[in-house]
Specification:
The complex is a heterodimer. Chain A is 41% helix and 19% strand. A 6-stranded mixed beta sheet of chain A has the order 3-2-1-9-10-19, with helices on both faces. In chain A, helix 1 packs antiparallel against helix 2. By secondary structure, chain B is α+β, with helices and mostly antiparallel strands. In chain B, helix 1 packs antiparallel against helix 4, helix 6 packs across helix 8 and helix 7 crosses helix 9. Classes of the chains: A alpha+beta, B alpha+beta. The interface between A and B is medium-sized, with 34 and 33 residues. Chain A: InterPro entries: Actin, ATPase_NBD. Chain A: It holds the Pfam family Actin. Chain A: One of its GO terms (molecular function) is ATP binding. Chain A: This is Actin-related protein 3.
Amino acid sequence: MDAASRPAVVIDNGTGYTKMGYAGNVEPCFIIPTVVALNESFSNQSRSSAKGNWLAQHNASVMADLDFLIGEEALMRSRFSTTYNLSYPIRNGQVENWDAMERFWQQCIFNYLRCDPEDHYFLLTESPLTAPENREYTGEIMFETFNVPGLYIAVQPVLALAAGYTTSKCEMTGVVVDVGDGATHVVPVADGYVIGSSIKSIPIAGKDVTQFIQQLVKERGEHVPPEDSLEVARKVKEMYCYTCSDIVKEFNKHDRLPGKYTKQWTGVKPKTGASYTCDIGYERFLGPEIFFHPEIYGSDFITPLPVVIDKCIQSSPIDTRRALYKNIVLSGGSTMFKDFHRRLQRDLKKIVDARIMSSAARLDGDVKSQPIQVNVVSHPIQRFAVWFGGSILASTPEFYRACHTKAEYDEYGASICRTNPVFKGMY
Amino acid sequence: MILLQSPSRFLLQILQDRLLSPDKGVDLDCHSVEFDDVRYHIQFSMRNPHVVVLSVSLPIPPPEAIFFDGLPFGAIEAIKAAYGAVAQILDPPKDGYNLTMKLNLSKLPSDEGSTRFLCKIPEQRQALLVKIASVREVVLGAPLRFVLKNLATKTVAPEMDQLIALVHRPKESFFLLPQQAEKVTVIYPMRFQDSTDIVLATSFLQELIESRRTAGLNNAPSCMWSPSPPLELKGAPAQALTANAGFVTFVIFPRHVEGKKLDRTVWSLLTFHAYVSYHVKCSEGFMHTRMRRRVESLIQALDRAKPESEKSKKSVSGKSFKRLSLNEAHSNSNS
């Protein structure tokens, strides 16, 4: 049986979570944290030991080679044992540690999806700012180590747009606001081609929300053990945070009815096993607020997300702007806060309306401009929209023709992965 | 992870989710593929919240391996024995699948009540879920289990003493040769697609034979590797006798299949090829790690050898040339 008759494997490696599964399904089979717990004790020991003891050295490194865990298991193991070190292979949307990444993929394929990589085409994703060298590296690992028959490296925002395929009619023009754990990108896409020169990135992402919550909790003096506080902050962010419409009103609401709005968090101290509780109050809405008022988090970057989106659209070609305003698509786990899209749409609409008003005033009402429609699209699968887009794309018959194949790789080398056709349209 | 695990993580996760949050109102329709072309299709609809329909498709058998109604010998009995009242086999199976089972989750064994409070699946239940998730072992391993069970009780089944072919990969089989009542010989023709894989697998297998000889492994099944078909395969069809990575032979004695060891032995023998191919991939990855480390150290050496002036050319601030300070300019003009 030919590999093209089996469903392709779709793996979306994000900074925080990795989504993986088979093409044609609606949901990814597994969503696991992108983390590897490595046992470094073996390899360090073998390096320092005498050279004569070849066999021991050999055995030690062979064992260490397979002695690692990924995902939730890695987090669990590192909490209770000191021999394993956590390593996050992806930082800010870019792969940093290729050794860890290769191991991570190995476990994804053999332990989680349990497939033979020679039997399936693969679709991987990358952020729009990935360097060509990184793409080559990915290709090299996939073809050399895993012997995949075909590989397609897709750009995340394009997939996020494709994910809207079922919710509305297929609209391949739009702005994708991708707020992941490690990186936030605002990417305009016109007819499936990325407008590379207008991509805007901001240094505030899900990780910063977590850190901000951690900081707030710490400053208020809640009794959270320090080694656990980041985990608690992450859980609080995922479970309790929401977006408010007005920050002052929200403070008042919380002060008036603390019983209704304050949540309790109960945890167990990892060292002693004793349980503790802490209150979760203002940080429920202050966490996501850093996208709209970045100045409350830090002084390095103070442009709110809606302004960045507006700037991004204004720098795009003039004939695409209306269509871009009309289709602003959210993707990534950190856009999952309740009412995030409403707030974004309202703020953006305000900016656009103000500009139209001022230009109308300048022209003294001689020219009547058409109102601009601002529409922020949100759908229930936002968290893994990129994966879902990949799943749709990889289940079409055209996908197999667009892939780089093993034969091509053997003929030309890793340079076939260097360029991505979706960037070529606008240059 | 050194050995492949028997239960499918994907099936187990879905079944556990189902039990932990039975009120989550979502229909489910999922396809999944495992190594060696075993496919699963799991379906669940809101109208009937306790019933999960699980279909399994097996690798296409080669002509020498015998299937009855699309299933290996003894599979139906094995399913009934393993799952009891929970599973009901639908006949005929769904189109394109070899087996369709209706799993009734309300019939799972339960320990008195307290399950919802603890938000944890009780042990007995968990054991059965794991068993369901290892449906592959139950179905594909049925004939192998039958033979090994006979070995454990040292009985000879009638007409079971000649060469038996069992499917383990699409259109590929491995062979069993029960010899009297005291041992079973298992022979694998090893085939790989890629030329690098063939070389790695061959040396992996030779290493395996070597390590079998070390003192600690005296009780392990004896194994042999040969590039040509061993004598035991005399009666096998010709196309089964071509293997580009040689033939591996294990001899299983009754002590290897006593009691609880039986399950593990069945699974390990059934997935031996997948095991080898997993480790071939792992060692390729390991070699790449080493190569990357080497390249890094070489680049470092090169960087150290670079003359100072070249470094200053690529300064971060974008200045493409070295600005001479007054002093240097002076000394330059002097020379």
